[in-house]
Specification:
The structure holds 2 protein chains of 2 kinds. Chain A is of the alpha+beta class. Chain A is built from 14 helices and 18 strands. In chain A, α6 crosses α7. Chain B has 2 domains: 161 residues, Aldehyde oxidase/xanthine dehydrogenase, molybdopterin binding domain (Aldehyde Oxidoreductase, domain 4, 2-Layer Sandwich); 141 residues, Aldehyde Oxidoreductase, domain 4 (2-Layer Sandwich), CATH 3.30.365. Classes of the chains: A alpha+beta, B alpha+beta.
């Protein structure tokens, strides 16, 4: 039951279109509804081998020894992979865009950091043979203390989860244990507020629960290449990740994706492709690595939990004057993509409202659980839950209708957002008005008259206020977490250059909304020193013939070497030097 | 013991594409000698309709019937680089890349037609039904098919186009969080109607009503599919799902769909949605992306509706019967709040 309200924003649109805007049937629909659309696992290969991994039974343990001799002799077993067989056995997904340090092995080396971490891979003639041989692998563990709570993990003396980030948090800008947002003076505003409300929210982890579990099939071709049937959500993302880990140039891999049986963010991590390709390299035969349902549930990375504290100052007339958000992303044992989501969350604060003083501290904490990853709404879903329940509580506290309260505080065209960019193309007020009308939820006449197009950017709404900044939370110095603010940036200060607007091709109706001259240009731009050029990623081992055993892991990175992957871009965004 | 009705609402916005930019998408388009077009991408169709939305965008921009365009995607040998299907970026990023490619191909198509008709290419228009004619003079026309044949076999022209869309990467300030994040934002407001049983603690979602502003609904049927499916996921997040029921205690994790609780067909609530269209200045035909945001407002709207019904705040998801009952007990019995229309 969907209707389109063409009466709103009609003068900003050209509706004279031929096929855009029409509910035309999808080209792939007949295949979907008849169950004939091909998926990655619908490809048959002669001589197909099956890969299964042996997983850690402990949340945190040192590996004393691994004995695979009995498993190697088991019926049907063709090859066993151990950490030393993986050419580049340390990676972080966002190394493709040069963000963050490599922190996660494909097969555990001397420690396991979460229950379910892969330690040994078995390649056999059948899934049953591989699973039977799994039971014959003898691994001697020395269990270690584990930590599961994000705030406990950040306390001094907590067990070290991730050896690359020994303080149990992702390091931002080589400087802080969290990503900051500072806009105005929240502390002063809390003192002037009629009501201050501070609440704690907990978003649960969620499993993506795709119908099709994660998996891939890799097969040697006759031209020294490998074809890989994959369910990755980002085909080149997965290709680049796999190429790095197995030490091949990108053009020796031919990735074929297609229709994916449910992604929701759970098929970005490329957790099966590298080992399937490595298996094909080592055996010269096609190798299939597919998670079973229990593996997908327990060890396919989930949406991470987030703990969020929201503190608001509100006046009796309903205006919110200050908002502070402190949030902890539970990354699990390795970074995957949580570091990026925390920055996205920072950009999202304080929600779709204009609040004159806003700040946030977003932490990414490592715990001894399966690494979490992207999921639908990554970085936003949890904080929206917290903010919108908080909004309901605030409306209750000032005795206002929740819809009227949203409209009163809604952001509008021209309002300055805390990340210091002007809001454009807003439509929150209209959405609230239409939802109220549709649900027959009475709102005030004043709320009905409001518009996203009017009143925004007036007076202080369009300005960058004088802002208190601080050096709290320096890396390795927990005692600085409560340090006082050090400096006030004058009103109007900006430090990040505007990026060039993208070249627009054919968005014919965009011309009606030509971007305004930005009003946030600094009066006196504070020039930021350019970030140091990041050292390069490790050089990859030379390409190997596919049947030959891969070379041992690459040596330590050589400063100045040519990076294998991606551009040298995020290094300058965060000043984070990759190892 | 009784069942209490309650209403809650939430309003949100959502950023489209990778927050800091730096996430390019490329597209290639070429024509067969009879004027049938293939769009070659490496984008992934997760079931969300990537193939169809790019097909419509390509047909619209080329000015040809949709039947004359097919999208081939997800092969790294034939499709050029794309970051992937995530971050609500598919329609926005790839849609723009396809427009760029289609405009280039259309440019060659019109030049070839101009040569056949002996007119200036700038004077030509397409009718979207497979014909090219002089503006204001429909009789001076040539079919797309004849044009493509002439281009291939007579003129030696390639009716093809390349496109890329890139929002340049933004830096982030360490001390203030200043950045140039997403360029397009979608909006929504959602009302949830629930019924809460104060004996069992069970929350029943009775209905959802919402308004979404999405720039432009490029294919309203697919928008509906996204919004309804996403709302179910939101309902599931709010009331059912978690792999760690006693988080942060990691024990008692479910192993399969028997143990991992999700709503069944009988739990799904009726849903009514209105779509508003305020075109994004940098969106393909103004389009934004409803892919991720559609679950978000359901979580807080349901939590707020539970409070409205029985006066209990559950600030830890999911809102299980156990938490609701404990909350009711803590306040000494259900405490219904002000009714909000309905």
């Amino acid at each position: 039951m969907l209707d389109i309200r063409k009466d709103f924003f009609a003068n900003e649109r050209d509706d004279n279109l031929n096929v855009v805007g029409k509910g035309v049937q999808r080209q792939d629909m007949p295949g979907h509804v008849t169950g004939r659309s091909p998926f990655f696992d619908d490809h048959a290969f002669e001589g197909l081998l099956h890969l299964k991994v042996v997983r850690s039974p402990h949340h945190h343990a040192r590996i004393r020894s691994i004995d695979v001799s009995a498993a190697e002799r088991a019926p049907g077993v063709k090859r066993i992979l151990r950490a030393a067989d993986v050419p580049v056995n340390k990676n972080t997904l966002l190394s493709l865009i040069n963000f963050g340090k490599d922190d996660e092995p494909s097969l555990a080396v001397d420690k396991v950091h979460y229950k379910g971490e892969p330690v040994v891979a078995i390649i056999a003639d059948s899934e049953a043979a591989a699973m039977a041989a799994r039971k014959l692998v003898r691994i001697d563990y020395e269990t270690l203390p584990a930590v599961f709570d994000v705030e406990e993990a950040l306390k001094p003396g907590a067990p070290v989860v991730n050896d690359t980030y020994p303080n149990n948090y992702f390091e931002y800008h080589d400087k802080f244990d969290h990503q900051k947002l500072r806009f105005g003076d929240t502390e002063k505003a809390f003192k002037s507020a009629d009501i201050v409300l501070e609440e704690r929210y907990q978003m649960s982890p969620i499993e993506h629960a795709p119908t099709e579990t994660n998996g891939s099939i890799a097969a040697p071709e006759q031209d020294n290449r490998f074809v890989v049937h994959s369910c990755a959500q980002g085909l080149f993302f997965s290709l680049g990740t796999a190429a790095k880990i197995v030490g091949l140039e990108s053009n020796r891999l031919h990735f074929i994706g297609g229709t994916v049986g449910g992604g929701f963010g759970g098929k970005v991590d490329s957790i099966t492709e590298p080992l399937a390709i490595l298996g094909a390299m080592m055996t010269g035969r096609p190798v299939r690595y597919v998670l079973d349902r229990e593996e997908e549930m327990l060890y396919g990375s989930p949406r991470g939990a987030e703990r969020i504290y929201v503190k608001d100052g509100v006046m009796r007339d309903g205006r919110i004057v200050a908002r502070h958000v402190r949030s902890y992303f539970d990354a699990g044992a390795y970074t995957r993509l949580s570091s990026y989501a925390a920055v996205k969350c920072t950009a999202h604060i304080p929600g779709p409202y204009w609040i004159p003083n806003a700040a946030s501290d977003i932490y990414v904490a490592y715990t001894n659980r399966c690494p979490s990853t992207a999921m639908r709404g990554f970085g936003i879903t949890a904080v929206d839950f917290a903010l919108e329940v908080q909004m309901d509580k605030l409306a209750h506290a000032v005795n206002m209708d929740p819809m009227d309260f949203r409209i009163l505080n809604a952001y509008r065209d021209g309002d300055m957002k805390p990340h210091r960019r002007v809001a454009k193309n807003t439509a929150l007020i209209e959405c609230v008005q239409v939802a109220a009308e549709k649900a027959r939820w009475p709102i005030s006449d004043s709320a009905k008259r409001q518009s996203s197009l009017a009143g925004g950017g007036e007076g202080e709404r369009g300005q960058i206020p004088a802002t208190l900044i601080d050096q709290r939370g320096q890396i390795g110095r927990p005692e600085t977490r409560n340090a006082p603010s050090t400096q006030t940036l004058p009103a109007g200060t900006t430090r990040i250059a505007l990026t060039k607007q993208p070249e627009l091709e054919g968005s014919r109706d965009s011309r009606a909304a030509a971007p305004n001259v930005p009003r946030y240009e600094p009066a006196q731009p504070a020039v930021q020193a350019p970030a140091p050029l990041a050292p390069a990623t490790p050089a990859s081992p030379p390409p190997q013939p596919y049947a030959a055993p891969p070379s041992p892991p690459a040596a330590a990175p050589t400063p100045g070497a040519t990076p294998q992957h991606g551009a040298m871009r995020f290094s300058s965004v965060f000043g984070t030097r990759r190892r | 013991m009784a069942r209490y009705k309650g209403r809650g609402m939430a309003s949100i916005n959502y950023p489209i594409g990778m927050n800091l930019g730096g996430d390019p998408s490329q597209a290639l388009i070429h024509s067969n000698p009879d004027g049938k077009f293939t769009v070659a991408l490496s984008a992934i169709d997760l079931g969300q309709g990537m193939k169809q939305v790019t097909r419509q965008v390509a047909a619209e921009t080329l000015g040809v019937p949709i039947e004359d365009v097919y999208v081939d995607t997800a092969d790294s040998d034939t499709g050029p680089h794309d970051m992937g299907s995530f971050a609500s970026r598919g329609t926005h990023r790839m849609g723009n890349a396809v427009i760029a490619a289609a405009r280039e191909a259309r440019g060659v198509l019109l030049e070839a037609a101009a040569e056949e008709l002996e007119v200036n290419a700038a004077d030509l228009v397409t009718d979207g039904r497979g014909n090219i004619h002089v503006r204001g003079a429909p009789s001076r026309s040539i079919t797309v098919r004849a044009t493509a044949q002439a281009a291939q076999f007579k003129q030696g022209k390639t009716i093809a186009g390349r496109g890329i869309f890139l929002v340049p990467l933004s830096a982030v300030d360490a001390e203030t969080g200043e950045m140039n994040p997403n360029t397009a934002f979608a909006h929504a407001c959602l009302v949830a109607d629930v019924e809460v049983d104060d004996e069992t603690g069970e929350v029943t979602l009775l209905g959802i009503t919402s308004a979404y502003e999405l720039g432009r609904a490029l294919n309203p049927k697919m928008v509906e599919q996204q919004l309804v499916g996403g709302a179910w996921m939101g309902q599931s997040h709010a009331l059912y799902e978690t792999p760690e029921p006693y988080y942060p205690n990691p024990d008692h994790g479910p192993r399969d769909f028997n143990e991992y609780l999700m709503p069944g067909p009988g739990d799904i609530a009726p849903y009514s949605v209105s779509v508003l269209e305020r075109p994004a200045p940098d969106g393909p035909f103004g389009g934004k992306g409803p892919g991720e945001m559609c679950a978000n407002p359901v979580l807080p709207a349901v939590a707020n509706a539970v409070f409205n019904a029985v006066g209990v705040r559950v600030d830890e998801l999911p809102i299980t019967p156990e938490k609701v009952l404990r909350g009711i007990r803590a306040i000494g019995g259900a405490n219904p709040q002000t009714r909000r229309g309905g």
